[in-house]
Amino acid sequence: MQFVAAIGLILSLILSSSLCFAAPKIEFISSKMQALVRFSWALAEFPHQAPALIEAFHRSPFRNQPEARRAIASLQSLRGSLAVGANFEQGIPGRQGGFTVETLITIQSIYAKDVDDLGRRISGLMPMASEKVLLSALKEIEPIFNDVIWNKSRVELERAREHLQNSISDKKISEAFSKIVKFYSAVWPKDHNFTVGVYPILFLENFRNSTTSQSLGPIEEHGIALDLRKPKLPDSGDIGVIYHEISHSIYAAQDKATMLSWKTFFDPRRGPYALQAHLWLNEALATAIGNGWIEEKLSGRLATQEWYNHPIIDKFSKAIYPDVKAYLENGRSLDQDLANRIIEAFQRNFPQSNRDLTAILNKVLIVADATMSDSSPTLLAEFRKSFSPSTIGMNRYTEIEGEDPFFPVIVLFNESTKASLLKSITDRSLLKKAVPLIHELKVNQVGNLVLASNVPVILIKLEDKAPPNWRSLWTSLAKLPFDSKVRPQTLILN
């Protein structure tokens, strides 16, 4: 199974079986190149970027500058090259660690001194022509970035970095790390430390400001919100977010046996809410641990504001927090009893989620013909705008045999590819049950079914013209309910 979205750079970490019972060291780095790359990714509308970065550009006098628009278009043309990568096979299906070229460039930007140094560090990751386009675009954007972001923020960013470096050594944090590792039944190599690259996100008036952070194995990224009108140092909330990302890294460092145990705890055969709870579990646990438990330890009170900028994750993490906190405080690992309570909490708080595709498609495998896969950068970019998935996989028709997947499947086909899809479905195929529906569907219709394992499958018959209008398709799909008992539904396309 070839996954497009990066879910963490694990490398050799999970090959070690030794646990680290003291918190590893954490080094904070503020890098201009990291901030430039993040700003550039935002301008190119890559997923998971802070909205305030592109809004700051739109409010600047550079927004209509031809050179800027040309550089942004150049970056957007590289979506395909930046999305390729590799997956590691030491996990289980749906839990492999991996990276994309974009991930590796982001990591190297934390250490790079300037654009030329970044070019040396990423040499060989992309075709030479693509690499040249990327570096030229970054150099074109850099003066704009200096004016809009860097020159205004670098002093406050360095103050924030120093404060975080001094604060992270709190004894409460050191004691918490081993309990988090225990909770996840994870492995973490002794003396393997973390690097946190911090970059500035300027506070904007009359705008819904939010930050973004991400986990890249032992490398973490954290966007720091800087309000230049009334500067203040990072607080327990920032450290909570950093430990949110560290929790993702620890989760990704589970060994295969633990991954299999957790899969059993949330087996979809326990019901549709078991699948739903598991699909949202990674973010909900990291939020409960970092934004809940760690922040409460440091500040002495539980944060009452929004913990995560997504309604399902925010509500779910708060619902499971009392149980998660009790397990952490008592040095316990997640087990079937806690899994059952987590599933019950999801069902109680989201009773209609088994019909809501925006909730169901948090993780998804998209199966398509090679001709459709050729437009995958646009397909995936538009899909993310409608569904905000944490993980998207893409397979060809010939790659769908074997055991049922552990998350929902979307199958795309048209009249021209219908024969090859049917030919790929053997007696062992997970789509054998879908054959009658494939024959029944008309153009721009959607058919739903549920596999024996309780995993949903969505079949969509497209027009033969290529490429489809992916934005219209996914926007329309998001409005339809999932119901395997109804007749095929028609997509209302613009």
Provide structural commentary:
- The protein is of the alpha/beta class.
- It folds into three domains: about 15-250, no CATH class; about 265-350, no CATH class; about 355-490, Chitobiase, domain 2.
- The protein contains 20 helices and twelve strands.
- The strands form three sheets. It has a six-stranded mixed β-sheet, with no helix packed on it. The protein has a four-stranded mixed β-sheet with strand order 1-4-6-5, sandwiched between helices.
- A hairpin with a 2-residue loop joins strand 5 and strand 6 (about 220-225).
- It starts with about 25 loop residues before the first strand and ends with a strand.
Tags for this model:
494 residues, Chitobiase, domain 2, 6-stranded mixed beta sheet, 20 helices, disordered N terminus
Give the helices and strands, then pairings.
Blueprint: E1 26-30, H1 32-43, H2 51-58, H3 66-76, H4 79-83, E2 85-87, E3 98-100, H5 101-111, H6 115-122, H7 128-167, H8 171-183, E4 194-202, E5 213-216, E6 219-226, H9 236-252, H10 256-265, H11 272-279, H12 281-299, H13 311-329, H14 336-349, H15 357-360, E7 363-367, H16 370-373, H17 376-387, E8 391-395, E9 409-413, H18 418-424, H19 435-440, E10 445-450, E11 456-461, H20 470-478, E12 489-490
Parallel strand pairs: 1-4, 4-6, 7-8, 7-9, 9-11
Antiparallel strand pairs: 2-3, 5-6, 10-11, 10-12
Helix pairs in contact: 1-2, 1-5, 1-7, 3-7, 6-7, 8-12, 9-12, 11-14, 12-13, 13-14, 17-20
